[in-house]
Design a protein that fits this description.
The chain contains two helices and eight strands. It is α+β, with helices and mostly antiparallel strands. Residues 1-28 and 47-54 have low confidence and may be disordered.
C-alpha cells in the first residue's frame, strides 16, 4: 500500500523468518525490533457467496479491558516460532477460535508502548472451530461488518489491515 506511513504490503512470507531457539542476546542485532503477528478473522454474513451477491462480510474484533481498546487479535512471537505460527496461536488464545490461514495482509511498522520499533504481520483467517470464552486478555469479541469496523476499532493501523482484508476478499468474490 502506498500513502500510509509505516505500513507495507507483505509478499513472499515464508517460514524462514524464524527466531532462533537459543541465541545469546548480545548476538542479536535485530533484537531491538519487536516482532508480533495476528489475524483478521472473517466470516460471511447472510446472503454472501464467493460470487459476491449480497456481500455481508464480517471481521472479528477483540476488547482488551486492561488497555480499554478494540483491536484485531495479535501478540508477540515466542522464541522459535514463525510469524504465521504466532498469528494462529494468538488468535486462538484471544478468541478461542481455530482458524485456517489465508493470504498475508499489510504488515504494520511502528513503535510499541515503550517506544521500541515493532513490526506486526497479519493474515486473513477463516474460523474452522472453537468458541470464545472470556480470558485474562480479552473479555469480549464482536463480529462487525467490514464497512463498520472503523466505528469500533481503536487504532488506525487495524483499519489499514481491515482495508487490506476487504481488498483481498473483493478479489476473491
Amino acid at each position: 500500500m502506498t500513502g500510509v506511513t509505516g505500513v507495507t504490503g507483505v509478499t513472499g512470507v515464508t517460514g524462514v523468518n524464524r527466531l532462533p531457539r537459543r541465541a545469546p542476546a548480545r548476538c542479536l542485532p535485530w533484537r531491538a525490533m519487536i516482532e508480533a503477528a495476528g489475524g483478521a478473522v472473517w466470516r460471511s454474513g447472510a446472503g454472501w457467496s464467493r460470487a459476491g451477491a449480497g456481500a455481508e462480510l464480517e471481521v472479528l474484533v477483540v476488547h482488551r479491558p486492561h488497555r480499554r481498546d478494540w483491536s484485531l487479535p495479535k501478540g508477540k512471537l515466542r522464541r522459535g516460532e514463525t510469524p504465521l505460527e504466532a498469528a494462529l496461536r494468538e488468535v486462538r488464545e484471544e478468541t478461542g477460535l481455530r482458524c485456517r490461514p489465508g493470504a498475508p495482509l499489510p504488515e504494520v511498522l511502528g513503535l510499541d508502548r515503550k517506544g521500541r520499533p515493532k513490526r506486526t504481520r497479519y493474515w486473513a483467517m477463516e474460523p474452522v472451530g472453537g468458541r470464545f470464552r472470556p480470558n485474562g486478555e480479552v473479555d469480549e469479541v464482536r463480529w462487525v461488518l467490514l464497512g463498520q469496523a472503523a466505528s469500533l476499532l481503536t487504532y488506525h493501523h487495524d483499519l489499514v489491515v481491515v482495508h487490506g482484508l476487504r481488498e483481498l476478499l473483493a478479489d476473491v468474490a
